[in-house]
Amino acid sequence: MAKPDLMDFDRALELYEPVLGFEVHVELNTATKMFSDAPNYFGGEPNTNITPVDLGLPGSLPVVNEQAIRYSISLGLALGCSIAESSRFARKNYFYPDLAKNYQISQYDEPIAYRGSVDVELEDGRSFTIPIERAHMEEDAGKLTHVGGSTGRIQGAEYSLVDYNRAGVPLVEIVTDIIYGADRDAPELAKAYVSTIRDIVVALGISDARMERGNLRCDANISLSPRGSGILGTRTETKNVNSLRSVERAIRYEIQRQAAILSAGGTITQETRHWHEDTGRTSAGRPKSDADDYRYFPEPDLLPVQPSTELIEELRAALPEAPALRRRRLKAEWGFTDLEFRDVVNSGLLNELAETVAAGASPQAARKWWTGEIARLANAAGVDSSSLVTAQQVAELIELVEAGTLTDRLARQVLEGVIAGEGSPAQVVDTRGLAVVSDDTALLAAIDEALAAQPDVLAKIRDGKVQAAGAVIGAVMKAMRGQADAARVRELVLERAK
Question: pTM of the prediction?
Answer without folding.
Answer: 0.81
